[in-house]
Amino acid sequence: MDSNRLRIDSINLTEILSEEDFSSLKTKKFKKGTLEYEDGTLTLYVFKSGKAKAIIYEDGEEFVLYFLKQNNIIIPETSCSIEFLEDSEVYLIDAEKFTYLFANKEFSTSVIRSLKHRAELERNIIKNLVFKSCKRKVALFLMEIATTQDTLIDGKYCIDLNLSIKDLSSFIGSKRQTVSTIMNDLLKKNVIGKIDKNRLLIHQFNKLENYD
Questions:
Q1: The HTH crp-type domain covers which part of the protein (predicted)?
Q2: In the chain, where does DSSP find H-type helix?
């Protein structure tokens, strides 16, 4: 699930930067539960280890934009905060102080591609939150994950979805009980089926497309 909404694009610094470059980079450790906000600087956070989630708040609700793990990159901004889900270590790259890094074509391309993809994901998430019904949001979410992972079993999409109902409801901006009812309805109608705890099989993709 390296290129879907659950995790954003990665940038493996060890394959791009020299040992000399690494010696000049600052790292910072964050404890589980820490919230990080934009501080007015243009600083790239590249995850060395650990896990976090990027979240936005609206009317008392929390919306998960995506998870962050090793090699993921993000620039904290006023529109969202970063919540660390486990003890983590992050490379901090000041875009103004380390301008020489951006002379590295591969590094610059990776950063731009990652931030472009993140912006596209955010726009799609916001459009779904604003314009789609809860049933439609769940269906679109499952289809997006399915087509991104592109894993087939006997010609049917298999989804590796290591998410609780609470996490899923946060992703689509709906109440947990509502999402639970919708997922049970999809299972009951055999539109989707459970392979095991974390994997689903889409039995009827066409019905999922028209589920509303």
A1: 132-206
A2: 19-23, 105-131, 134-149, 165-172, 176-188, 205-209
Using alpha carbons, select from 187, 176, 194 the residue that is nearest to residue 211: 187
Helix/strand/coil for 96: coil
Distance CA 177, CA 191 (A): 19
Domains of the chain, by residue range, sit at 13-131, 134-209
47 is written with which tokens? 């995850």
Query: What confidence tens digit (pLDDT) does each residue in 44-83 have?
Result: 888 999 999 988 876 666 778 888 888 888 877 777 789 9
CA distance 35 to 99: 27
Q: Stretch 97-107: mean pLDDT, rounded?
A: 75
Q: What is the pLDDT of residues 156-189, one digit of tens each?
A: 999 988 888 888 888 887 888 899 999 999 999 9
Collect all residues with Cβ–Cβ distance below 8 Å to 11 and sequence separation of at least 6: 46, 71, 72, 73, 107, 110, 111, 114
Residue 195: which residues within 8 A CB-CB, separation 6 or more? 153, 158, 201
The fourth-level CATH superfamily of domain 13-131 is Jelly Rolls (2.60.120.10)
**Which range in 18-22, 97-101, 205-209 is most confidently predicted, on average pLDDT?**
205-209
